[in-house]
Amino acid sequence: MGLDALDNIKKLPVSIVMPVYNEVHMVSKIVELLDRQTIPPSELVIIDAGSNDGTLDCFVKEYRKKNRNYNLTTYVSKGAYPGAARNKGMALSKHDWNVFLDAGIFPDKDWLEKLWLFREQGGLGIVLGQCDFQSDSLIGVALLAVSYGVNKKTSTIPGSILKKEVFYKIGCFREDLRSAEDLEWKRRLRNYFQINSLPVCKTTVLHYTDVPDNFSDIFQKWRRYAIHTVYSGQMKIQIFIYMLLWFLIIFFLKYDIEIKLVTLIVILYIISRGVIGPIRRCNRFKWWGNKVGSLYLAPIVVLTIDFAKSVGFIVGIFNSLIGRR
Question: Which of 60, 102, 159, 268 reaches 20 to 30 Å from 109, CA-CA?
Answer without folding.
Answer: 60
